[in-house]
Amino acid sequence: MSVEYRKVLYANYHTTQSGRASLTSAEALFKREKRQFELEVLPLLHAVSKSARIFDMGCGSGSLLKGLKEAGYTNVIGMDLSEEQVTMAHGFGVSEVVLGDAMHYFRNSEEQFDVITGMDIIEHFTKDELVELLQLIQSKLKKGGMAIFRTPNMDAPIATAFAIGDFTHENYLNSSSAEQVMLSCGFGDVRVKGSFMRVNGFLKEGIRSLLYRIMSFRLKLQLFATARSTQKVLFTPNLIIIGVKS
Question: Does domain 5-198+234-244 have CATH number 3.40.50.150?
Answer without folding.
Answer: yes
